[in-house]
Every structure is written in structure tokens, then in C-alpha cells.
DNA sequence: GCCACTATATTTAGTCA
DNA sequence: ATGACTAAATATAGTGG
């Protein structure tokens, strides 16, 4: 766009494609969040780079996307998530236990010690406030429609 | 936008909201299809109108979306599992190492020591790093992600 | 409600540092 | 490859039918 008329075709040049990808992804995300804010809708998207070994990108967040997908009645994402969290708790326990052990040993030996367990960076999700309401979500009967109608409900 | 500066806030007026919704949804879909075409990515998006009994709208099509979600599900299970296990092993190693260290220190017991066990960034497993977000529309997909990196693969 | 039509705001391809 | 800048292309809030 912009300089010359847009050529709506696949960009073979990797560097150029990457730049365009990043720019447009950013713009797309912005548009999406705006739509969500303005109209109070829950939305998510998934993008699969064509490269075989690449990972999918999701928006607005992994947590939100998973939750939406689960509501989609297609995936038991919630269960998987719970399992993951359970594992995380287990890891935390182990760390705490190890820490405790170290502490005791050192104290018993009359030594100074500094034990620092940094567990920050635990997932924080950008979940819009209005997403919290269960009642907002469609109960079921997921019907995929390309929605030509565009109507509200 | 356009006439006056955009007020990025929820539109309470139903009629106005509906109009904006339709217009912006259309634009979003277009952007999505363009991203797909230009960068060769597969993308899909799901939007849930907040109204309880409404159906979600999806892009690009029911079939494509289903296929992508299936793929997403599989990836999630495998990758997540692998990653979690890898992290658990890592934590085990670190704990073992810390224990070893403390043991030596205590045994030697000749002078003061400072033992620092830094286990930062351990869990974080809740959301795999490779999970990013984005979104798209029309006949293709949309992806939105938290991923600031924006890298290609 | 749905279109078509702007006048402007926003997005972005290309370019340079 | 990343960031800033800019000119041009697009998207869209208002508006009227």
C-alpha cells in the first residue's frame, strides 16, 4: 500500500515478508482490541506461520484463547490447563522444600546465608474486564458461520 | 476516527454499536485475509458477541477453522507436555545442585559463606513462550499474539 | 435497519539511518 | 534486523436518503 497500489500477493522475499508480517500483525491486534473495547465482544485469533516447525501465535492471550476455544466445545483446553497448573504447583513445592532444606542446614552451622527464590514472571493474562462475566458467554451450540449477516446477536 | 478523534470506549448505544461492529468487523476480516495472502500464514479468528444466546462468528470458514483448531489442540498437548517435562528436569537438576553445594559448605564449615539459590524463571510453564497471539479475518485466518518479538517462525 | 458518500484518522510500504 | 519518518493508501464516524 501507501507508496504504490497494493499488490495483494505473497511476498517471497523473506526479509520483506517478515517486516510486513510484523507491521500488519501489530495493526491487526490493535484493530481487534479496539473492536473488543468498542463493541464489548470477546475475540481471539490464531495464526500459523507456514513454516512447518513454527509455533502458532495467538491473541489476545494464550489463557483467553484457550478459554474461548474450550467454550467452543471443541477442545478440553481447560483440563489441560489445570493439569499444567497442578504441575506448576508441584514445582513450586519442590523449590520451596529445597529452599527450606538449605536454610536449615546453613543455620545449624551458624552461617550466614542468603536464600533467594525468585518465582516471578508467572503468567499474567490480559483478560478484559468484561470477560469475567460468565453470563456473557454463549452456552453452546457452536455454529460456525461466516456470518455474512453481520447482525449483532 | 475520521471526523473527530476516536473515543476508544464501549459504545452503550445499541444502534451505534451495531453499526460500528459491522463496519469494523468487515475491516478486520479484510486485514486478516490480506495478512494471510501477503505472508502466507494460516489464520482464523473467533468473535463472541457478548449477548448470551448469540453464536460466535468465525473466519475464514467453518471447515478451515475446525482444521486449525484441531491442529492447535495437537500442538498444545505435545509441545506443552514436552516443555513441562523439560522444565521439571531442569528444576530437579537445580535443586540437586543446590543441595550439593550446601552440603559441601556445611561439611567444610571453616568460614562464613553466602549461599544464593536463584531459581528465577522456573515455572512460567503455564504459558509456553512460543504461544503468541494475533488475528485475521475473511477467507483465511487471523492471528493475534502477546508475542512482542514478532519474529517470523 | 441498510446503503452510499465523504472528510478525516489511521495504517503502512518504502526508505534511510 | 530494528526504529523513525513520510507519502500514499485505507478504514471509518458522521451524515443523508
Q: What proportion of the residues of chain A form beta strands (DSSP E)?
A: 5-15%
How would you sum up the global shape of chain A? flat
Q: Could you list the spans of chain A in which at least 5 consecutive residues all have pLDDT below 50?
A: 73-91, 102-150
The SS-based structural class of chain A is mainly alpha
- Gyration radius of chain A, rounded: 23 Å
The number of domains of chain A is: 2
Our count of helices of chain A gives 3
CATH fold call of the largest domain in chain A: SRF-like
Mean pLDDT of chain A: 57
Query: Spatial order of the strands in the main sheet of chain A?
Result: 1-2
The biggest beta sheet of chain A is recorded as:
2 strands, antiparallel
Oligomer: homodimer
CATH superfamily of the largest domain in chain A: Transcription factor, MADS-box
End-to-end span of chain A in angstroms?
34 Å
Biggest chain contact: A-B, 105 and 106 residues
DSSP, total strands of chain A:
2
- Approximately how much helix is present in the residues of chain A? 40-55%
Query: Can you tell me the CATH architecture of the largest domain in chain A?
Result: 3-Layer(aba) Sandwich
Protein name (chains A, B): MADS-box domain-containing protein
InterPro entries (chains A, B): TF_MADSbox, TF_MADSbox_sf
Keywords (chains A, B): DNA-binding, Nucleus, Transcription, Transcription regulation
Domain MADS-box (chains A, B): 1-61
Task: Report on this structure.
Two copies of one chain form a homodimer. Helices cover 44% and strands 7% of the residues of chain A. Chain A has two domains: 14-83, Transcription factor, MADS-box (SRF-like), CATH 3.40.1810; 87-136. In chain A, strands 1-2 form a two-stranded antiparallel ribbon. The longest helix of chain A is centred in the middle third of the chain and has 32 residues, at 77-108. The first copy, chain A, contains three helices and two strands; from the N terminus they run H-E-E-H-H. At the A-B interface, helix 1, strand 1, strand 2, helix 2 and helix 3 of A face helix 1, strand 1, strand 2, helix 2 and strand 3 of B. Chain B binds a DNA duplex (17 and 17 nucleotides) through helix 1. Chains A, B: Pfam families: SRF-TF. Chains A, B: Residues 1-61 form the MADS-box domain.
